[in-house]
Amino acid sequence: MLRAPVVSIYVNTHAFGRESAQDSVRFTDLVDDVATSLHRDGNNGSKQLLAPLRTLAADRDFWQHQHGSVAVFGNDYSWECFSLRAPGIETVAVDEIPFVLPLVPHVVEVTPFLLLALSKNAVRLFECDEDGANEVDGSRIPSSFEDALRFEDPQPQLQFHSTGGISIAHGHGIGDEVAKQRLDRFLHAVDRAIVEREEAPTRPMVLATVDSTASRFRHVSAYPTILDRHISGNPDRLSAQHLHEHALAIVRDRDFAARQDDIEHIRELIGTGNVDTHTDDIATSALTGRIATLFLADSDGVFRENGSDPDSRACALNRAVIDTVRNGGKVALAPAPLLDGIDAFAVTRW
């Protein structure tokens, strides 16, 4: 934990154009606000304290390579700067602890997952998270239908008999049933390789393939967590980035639905003694390590208006977030309508 006084600054940024050039100007204005606050509190060392921020404000290359927003935390001894994907609240705070409350909307955890792009011509397996998709070493996974069945005889078997001196060949080609069996063996080979590679398969898997193959793979697979939705169509011409974008949307929807179910269940617990809804109670429970999960409503009412100083309620929630995480609990964002006007509630361990 940083030593007081701790400065926290949040500023929105832009990737290109004139607005990008103005980001450093806006950041300088916020640093000036911090200087005013420090001077008001009698801190005579504000010039030295804020020197690294003045240097950052003048770094043109830095401001030309940002996207959504930037969060900066520091004190006399150290500074940390974080680039965030999305814009958010612009504000400053000077307190005994970092003001992390505006970070919560940016911390949307996406479950790490697998993405299997599957066709007869190519098999690609990716390990994915929020940031991207990395194709895994395919040496243990069949690379195609031919690779999986390469030891089988692909030629139809012919039988001959003679009629009036003329040899007639009867071809027993691969009929529909045999073709289905070979497809199942291909899918089994892919599935077996993935299950063996995962050892204890827990990560959800998103399929990218044609509808019929997706249905068949789910039927033959031993993998326990294949998601119901898939990326429909032949994936061969789709890049890893394109596949990841579509798969990420599927996983986010799945995680969001799970959170909604959890929240609806927790709402039923309100009044049973296992849920705190008052800010003071939440702060006390967080400090004593009682909170298992702290839910904050996704609303400006919790995260404050741009530029406003933290009020007592925001400071209490901010400290509760830090204490919850410090004591092994989780912090999650909940859609405001699901909380029926409640800013936050905590599921307690006892």
Plain-language structure description:
The protein has 350 residues and is of the alpha+beta class. It folds into 3 domains: 1-99; 113-252, Nucleotidyltransferase, domain 5 (2-Layer Sandwich); 270-350, Ribosomal protein L30/S12 (60s Ribosomal Protein L30, Chain: A), CATH 3.30.1330. The chain has helices at residues 17-40, 46-49, 51-57, 60-63, 145-148, 176-198, 211-220, 240-269, 279-287, 300-303, 312-326, and strands at 6-12, 69-74, 79-84, 91-95, 113-118, 123-128, 133-135, 157-163, 166-172, 205-209, 231-232, 275-276, 291-298, 330-335, 344-348. The strands form 4 sheets. A 5-stranded mixed beta sheet has the order 7-6-5-10-11, with helices on both faces. Helix 1 (17-40) runs antiparallel to helix 3 (51-57). The longest helix has 30 residues, at 240-269. It is globular, with a radius of gyration of 29 Å. The two termini are 27 Å apart.
Spell the H/E element sequence: EHHHHEEEEEEHEEHEHEHEHEHHEE
The strand count comes to 15
Name of the CATH architecture of the largest domain = 2-Layer Sandwich
Query: Biggest β-sheet, characterized?
Result: 5 strands, mixed
By helix and strand content, what is the structural category? alpha+beta
Please give the order of strands in the largest beta sheet.
Answer: 7-6-5-10-11
- State which percent range the strand residues make up: 15-25%
Q: Residue share in helices? A: 25-40%
Name the average pLDDT.
84
Rounded radius of gyration (Å): 29 Å
Distance between the termini: 27 Å
CATH class assignment of the largest domain: Alpha Beta
Principal-axis shape? globular
Low-confidence stretches: 155-160, 162-169
